[in-house]
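Possible regression after last week's pipeline update?

I re-ran a chain I had predicted before the update to compare outputs. Posting the input and the new output here so someone can diff against the archived version. Not blocking, just want to make sure nothing changed silently.
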Amino acid sequence: RSGEGAAEKVSIRGDWVRMDGLSADDEYVLGDLKSGQVYVVMPQDRTVLELKSNGKPASMSSSDATLKKLGNGPAVAGFDTVEYELLVNGQGCGKTLVSEKAGDIADIQRLLKSLEQFDPAAMMPEGMGDMVASQVSACDRAQMSMQGKIADLGMPMKSTDAQGGVEQEVISIDTQASLPANLFTLPSDYQRTTPGAMINDAMSQMQEMMKNVTPEQRQMMEQMMQQFGGQMPK
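New output (post-update):
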C-alpha cells in the first residue's frame, strides 16, 4: 500500500510476476523473470505495451549514498524487521524496514534478484532514460542505486521519506494463495505496441496538428517543449 492509500497486489508463479492496482483504469503489468520482458496491459485501449531492457540503463549510481543500520524495527505484516536509514552526503533520505525472513521466501527472493532486469530507464528509447535520470532528485537517485543492496538484506516491508511520511508498506504476504490459471496469460486479441511506436504515432499526430496552428501558437508550443527538453516536429 502506498502512502496515499492505493493498494497494489503482486502475484508470483514460476517465471512470471503480475502487478495489479498500479492505476485506476484496470491496467496491470506482467513480467517474465527469466527473460526480463515486461508487458503493460491496458484494457481500456485493448493494447499491450511491450518493454524490454536495451542493456543501457540510465546512470542512477550515487557514490555518496550509504545505508546505516539503526537496529531492530517493529513487526510488519507479521514479520520481524531491521531498520536502515538511507543517507546521501550524511543527510537522511528516509528509512526502510527490511525482513530477512520474508526475503527468504523462494518466490520473493527470485523477484528481488530479478529487479535489475526491470530497470524502467533501460526500457526507454535511446537517450530518454538519461534525460529522465537527470531530473531525478539526489535522494531518489540514491534509493534507486541502493535497491540491489537493500534486496540483498531481505524484503523491504515499509519505507518512509525524510519527513517520516509512509511511502509504501507491505500489508500481507500469502504463500498459499490460489491463483487463477489464466492470471499470467496475455490477451491474444489486444494490439501490441512499443515505446518507440507510441512516440512515432504521437509525433505523426503532432505534425498533423501543426499544419493548422498559427505562428504565434507554434512559438508558444516550441517554448513549452524546450522546457521539457524536447523539440517540435518540423
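Follow-up from reviewer: compared with the archived run. The longest strand covers residues 65-76. Marking as no regression found.
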